[in-house]
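Hi team,

Filling in the usual template for the complex we talked about on Friday. All components are listed, including any nucleic acid strands or ligand strings, so the model treats them as one assembly.

SUBMITTER: L.P.
PURPOSE: interface mapping
COMPONENTS: two
RESIDUES: 820
SEQUENCES:
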Amino acid sequence: MPVILIISILAFLLLSLLPGDPAMIIAGDQASPAAIEQVRRQLGLDRSFLEQLGIWLFNLARGNFGSSLILNQSVLSAVGERLPVTLSLAALSIGFTIPVGVFLGSLAAYFRRTWIDSAVMTVALLGVSIPAFWIAILGVILFSVQLGWVPSSGFAPISQGVGRWFASMALPALILSLFQIGFLARMTRSAMLDVLSQDYIRTARAKGLSEWRTVGKHALRNALILIITATGILLSAAIGGSVIIEQVFALPGIGRMVVQAIMARDYPLVQGTMLILGFTFVMINLIVDILYTLADPRVRHD
Amino acid sequence: MKQKLARRGVAVALALVLGVSFGAAAAQTPKKGGTLVYASVSGPGTLDPYMASSVVELEVINNIFEGLVTLDNVNATKPMLASKATASADFKTYSFELRKGVKFHNGQEMTSADVKASFERYKRISPNAKNLDAVDHFDTPDPYSFVIVLKEPNVVLLDVIKSPIYPLMILPASQKDKPARDIEVIGTGPYKLGEWVKDSHLVITRFDDYTADTSSPGRDGYAGRKTVYLDAVRYRFMPEITTRIAALQNGEAQLISSVPPDLSAKITERKDLAIREVFPTLGSYIIVNSQKGLTANVLIRQAIAAAINVDEIIEGAGGLNKRNPWMSFPGTPYFLGDTAPTPWYDIKNPAKAKELLKQAGYKGEKIIIETNSNYQWMRDTMLIVAEQLKAAGMTVDVQVTDWTTNASHMQQGTGDWNLSTTAFGPDHILGPQQWRPMLYTFPHITGNDIIDKAYAEFFQGQTLEARRASWLTIQKEVLGGGYLVKIADTGRLSGYSKSLQGQNDYAGILQLWDLWLN
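RESULT (copied from the run log):
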């Protein structure tokens, strides 16, 4: 709860520091000073800073996140409409990331200092280094224009069929997961290297367990804590990274909405969305903590 | 044998000629049906016409709503929902006869009650409402007559109410008390609103009960007889230009907006795609803050204007530009062309600038240029301007912020800046009355008696010639006094599939009537 309160005050403060007058932007380029003043009064921007903060917190306490100035709808419904897009993107990219990243990382650790290790680490380095917007544009040109496998952009809700939904999300999710795969592969490799040199792995091998069981069960299970931590970070990063991906692929998600809201100085929308995203990140951390207890019995006993 | 071959050759040639001409004829025959997909940069924030000033909003609004009068093919005033518009001899009473049988999208017939309610709502909520300040009252003598009675004469009232931004479209009377941005989207236009998913897409469909203006032979700017061949138009909002081009290339869209000139080859290299030049749409200017420090001095402002080399800016900043020293587009009623010299334009004389600086007692104080990171042409323009000013001996500090802040500073005169840049659109079409608030806002002109007097004369001028003379005085003072420095008229490029037929040369905002898909 204190964390949420701090986030809510920060969300308010950060925006108030931004230059630019929302009343002028809402009123439009050709508005007279009187018209701008009228808009300012309507938005409550003529009140003192503390008054505005007080109203903001009071409304939040009643579950009122405010209304967007540019969308003419409540912040909650605006976020609710766009959440399926951003969640689809984040979930699908994490769905690509975890199996591929963990597999590649384990492979590199198992074959350390061989060409396989070098190849995987080079790919991982490229994944974390290449800017997402550039690879996204190349992806559109290759998969959409040249090969015609997927549409260039746009979102098809799952209600229009799983096939159409997957076709619309596959490329954006894949591009978003490239960075994450690189990151997770490096983390997994590092964790696995540590585990593979432990005595109990030597013991497992000595008692005649197969390599598959040794690595897949004993080593990977012990490296899992680090992998869960990395996944939690990645999920938060995926929601953040969706800003660029949603822009390039014209996906009507939260990231794109926030960018437009910031440009239009739509204070309630940016503040409300920041708060909801902050709350989401807190929840992700909570889930990660719970997963620790499942992955590592020692955490439970502590 | 030779004869046979020759005959066959003639036959082939004839067939080719006929084939081509038949093909051309077939291509010219409008075909009904189909959905046009138009990929634009972003979606509208509102479809309330009285609050709409951005292109993405007007691109939808112009196809759904209509006004009493509007702009024709040469940007002159032409009746649209009115069949006739007349002013009294003293320009204090304007009478409109309405076209009969015009239906709203909800099936109701449009009458003078709807027109009156629309004007009243416009007066109440539109940021442009000051243009109706002189209205005393509205009369509706019968269902097809509407009268505006003014408190004082206004010779340009029709020009004001044909404005393409914050357009005064006619809505049903039921919308009269609706707050700003909160109307039901019901117009009389050739399309009606279908589905609208914010940030994703918007669909408009053909309004089958549309009542075309049969007094016109065909389309005429925003006016005339509008025929809709398409079943629907789907606007898709794609902020990234590469994605828009990809959508055009793979056939997902047949029309895309805002193609930068350096990427146009990606479209023209394909035989089935083409580029359309829409020109002119804006005029670009250096804005000089006449209320701030150094640039409050007219000599310093004139020195800045003297240092500017327009061709260097056009070449360096890119885009579609043409030189024009005036604040009106060629072909519009207030364009003065060669009727007067334009000594303020493209002076490119650093020596003269230095001389003016000397007279002003300039001692190397810093001139602050503010620009933004959102619009590359603005940033590039101001970087070139900075170099030109340095070459004329000025000390310059370039500060880059975001567009929202930059625009806010320019409009309100806040922030710490002497020079900035922006582009103006409809002012160049509509003329001096539309320019007036801009001049008192952007360069923040205050206490200039010459401009104030010329504007007073302008609004009294009963002939176009008299008003053009006032406009010349105003431009001489604004541009000659270095409040604004004109750079060029600019246009934009759109990309389209050749299967989309019927586009014309009129440089207005997206018009989706008289277009068809082959």
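MY TAKE: Residues 448 and 477 of chain B are 9 Å apart (CA to CA). Chain B has a mean pLDDT of 90.

Thanks, L.
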